[in-house]
Structure formats: C-alpha cells, structure tokens
Design goal:
By secondary structure, the chain is an alpha/beta fold. The protein has 18 helices and five strands. It has three domains: 74 residues, no CATH class; 92 residues, Nucleotidyltransferase, domain 5 (2-Layer Sandwich), CATH 3.30.420.10; 157 residues, no CATH class. The radius of gyration is 38 Å and the shape is extended. InterPro entries: DUF659, RNaseH-like_sf.
C-alpha cells in the first residue's frame, strides 16, 4: 500500500496518480525508516512506538479501504437505481398497454380502486397471479356484493338516529326515455333506493306518489328530515302534496338546479350572451361534424379538444365557450392556414361563416367578458354539485360572486345590472 501511495514502481503494485503530495511524502518517509532499521526490528519499533507511525499507516490503509467501500457502495446503489427505473418503466408500459388494448378510459387511472389494487399487488410481491375471469364473475362478485350490502346496511341503520335527506334525480337514457332515481343521503353516505320510468313529462301527483312509495318501502317516513328536488313547475306542485302528507319534513329546492336556471336566464335575457353562445356552438358543431376539419384543428391545438355541452346542464355551454376562448390563438392561426383553406368543407357557407366568427375580434372580446362574469357563478355551481354538505357556503359564495362581477366592471352598476 505504501509503495502504491509513494508512486514507486515495483512490488507488483500499480502507481497511484491521485495521491496528494503530503500523503506521498509521509509514506516515502515511512519506507525509508523501515529500510534503515531492518525488516524485523523496524516492524517491532513501528508497532511498539507511541508515535503516530503505525497509527498513521493504519489510518491511511483504513482511509483507502473506506474510499474503496464507498465507491463500491455508490456504484451498487447506481446499478440498483437503474434496475428499479427499468422495472418501473416496464410496469408502466404494461399498464398503459392494458388500458389501450381494452379501450379503458384514461381517467380510470385516477380511480381509488385502481390505485388500491396496484398497491395490494405490490404488497403481495413477486409471484402474484391475477384471478381468472371465472373467479371474478362468481366468487369475487358475490364477495363484493356482500361487502357493498354491509356498507349500505350501516348507512340504513344510521337513519334511525340521525335521519336522512331524500333526493330525486331525473334523467334520460339513449332511447330518450325519462327516468327518476330516488336516493337517500346522510352524513354516513348516499345510497340508491329505487328508480321508475315515466312517459313524457312527470305529473306532479305521480311524482309525489313515487316519492312517498319509495320512502315507505325503503326508509320510513319517521326517518326523513328533508326532501330535495328540481325546480320545475311539476316538481314544485308535487312538493305541496308532499308537505301535506309529511308536515314535519323540509321541502328544499336543488341549489345546483337553481344556479343552472340562473345561467339559462342570463343566456335568454341578455342578447350579447346568447349571441356569443350561439356563435360558439356553431364553431363547435362545424369542427366536430367532419373528421378532416377536426384533424386540422387538433394539429393546431396540439391535440386539445373543445368541450361539448351536455343537454341536461345549460352551464356546460359556458364551459364550451371557455374552452374556445382558451384556444383563441390556435384557432386564429388555423383559419389563416393553407391546410384550412384546402378543405372543401371550409369553402361552404357554413365554413365561411365559422371562419368569419373566428377572425372577428369582437367575438373574442365579448367572449372573454362573458367568461369573466360567469366564472364566479360556475364556480358556485361546481361547489354545490360536489360531494359533501355545501349549502352553508352558498350565501357567502353568492355575495363574493356579486362582488367579483362588480369589480370586473369597476363598480359601474349600469354595466353589470343585466347580470
């Protein structure tokens, strides 16, 4: 080791070029001293002396060993990290391949059940084999049903102590048939009670009868504290029937439906808003009518899509407008491009109208103004339509929305009065 540090050739030792001068000088002195005193006596003197010769030599040797050990540890750690990275990449690719091959929506990756399943597989470790399709559709299905029923029973039993709120939800299926779902909600959770298919508009008496039958069969009138329904005229009329049958129960209108009706009134009563929403719908309809036009848009928006409104929520029209406003520059570049002009669809009357709308500066200015004014109301709608008790925040949120709209117009009442 000393010859290695000194840089002396021989002793079957390679020369170290990384040794500091101070260490090299000290090691050379040790070699010369050992040579003078003889092999045996030199060894005895060095080991028996109180001086620092032996200790320093040992320290040098120890230091080099520690350095070798640390270098080896870092090297092994780097290899381990690299292997783990490769293994994760392989696992990620396998999961991605599974999603794509089976046409599974990408947002399923955010599902708590999916994340929990991956965690349980990792806890099991190597050698885990997934259940067969036969096991899933028989044993596991029965086990999960039993687990769900236990959860529902816990909620049902809590109604005796804390009561519950009855909620109705109307919707249409793909055949345009009307359905009403009945649900019971409490601080313990929300459960589905029953559903009924209706023909045409739901009559107030029939709706009230459906609510009462659902309560009697699944909940018990004594366990109901509140009934929440939409604000349509037939539901309001049914509410009076329910109040007569259950005088101790609160009848409440759906806050989310109220806000959606407010947004619909704004569109109907303010000409500028309805005009911009109509133009935004024309842009969306034209682009998504043709795959060639859609491909052209996606090339300029880097794959970003326009949001398409849902027939059941008018507020989604404003979300559609917002998605168009956010892509203003991309859409402007698109209609000015050779790719757009080369499309046969863009040379039609409808295509020229859409091109004019996108190139119209006033459309973008009015669109940004509408989004800025409507955004506080949409924010409240999202809040009340989320999970959990939010009614206590509605009044404060409405006050803040009014303040935000007033601030946008610098407090000039004439400008924000229509809203």
């Amino acid at each position: 080791m000393k010859f290695h540090l000194v840089g002396k050739i021989g002793k079957d030792i390679k020369v170290c070029n990384a040794v500091p001068d101070s260490v090299q000088t000290f090691a050379r002195g040790l070699i010369e001293e050992a040579g003078k005193k003889g092999k045996k006596s030199g060894s005895e003197n060095i080991s028996s002396s109180s001086g620092s010769g032996s200790q320093t030599t040992n320290l040098i040797d120890l230091s080099m060993e520690e350095q070798d050990h640390q270098t080896k540890g870092v090297y092994q750690s780097s290899i381990s990290t690299l292997i783990q990275k490769k293994e994760k990449e392989a696992a990620d690719l396998a999961i991605g391949r599974f999603f794509i091959a089976n046409n599974i929506a990408f947002n399923v990756a955010r599902s708590p059940e999916f994340i929990n399943a991956i965690g349980e597989v990792a806890n099991h470790g190597p050698g885990y084999k997934p259940p067969s399709s036969e096991t899933i559709r028989t044993k596991l299905l029965c086990d999960l049903k039993e687990e769900a029923m236990e959860y529902v029973n816990v909620i049902n039993n809590s109604w005796i102590e804390i009561g519950c709120t009855i909620m109705s939800d109307g919707w249409k299926d793909q055949r345009n048939r009307n359905h009403i779902n009945l649900l019971a909600s409490s601080i313990k959770g929300t459960v589905f009670l029953c559903s009924e298919t209706t023909e045409g508009k739901v009559k107030d008496a029939k709706y009230a009868d459906f609510i009462l039958r659902g309560i009697d069969e699944h909940v018990g009138r004594e366990n109901v504290v509140q009934i929440i329904s939409d604000n349509a005229s037939n539901y309001i009329a049914a509410g009076y029937i329910l109040e007569a049958q259950m005088p101790n129960v609160f009848k409440t209108n759906c806050a989310a439906h109220c806000l959606d009706l407010i947004l619909e009134d704004i569109d109907r009563e303010i000409l500028k808003v309805s005009d911009i929403i109509h133009k935004a719908q024309n842009i969306k309809n034209f682009i998504y009518k043709s795959t060639h036009v859609l491909d052209c848009m996606q090339n300029f928006t880097e794959g970003k899509e326009l949001k398409r409104p849902a027939s059941t929520w008018f507020a989604t029209n404003f979300l559609m407008l917002e998605s168009i406003i956010n892509l203003e520059q991309s859409l402007r570049f698109m209609v000015a491009s050779n790719e757009w002009c080369a499309l046969s669809q863009t040379r039609t009357v409808e295509g020229r109208e859409v091109s004019y709308i996108i190139q119209d500066t006033l459309f973008w200015e009015d669109g940004r103004e509408i989004i800025a004014v409507i955004a506080p109301l949409v924010k409240i709608l999202r809040m009340v339509d989320s999970e959990g008790a939010t009614l206590g925040y509605v009044y404060e949120a409405m006050d803040r929305a009014n303040e935000a709209i007033s601030k946008y117009y610098d407090g000039v009442f004439v400008k924000y009065e229509p809203y």
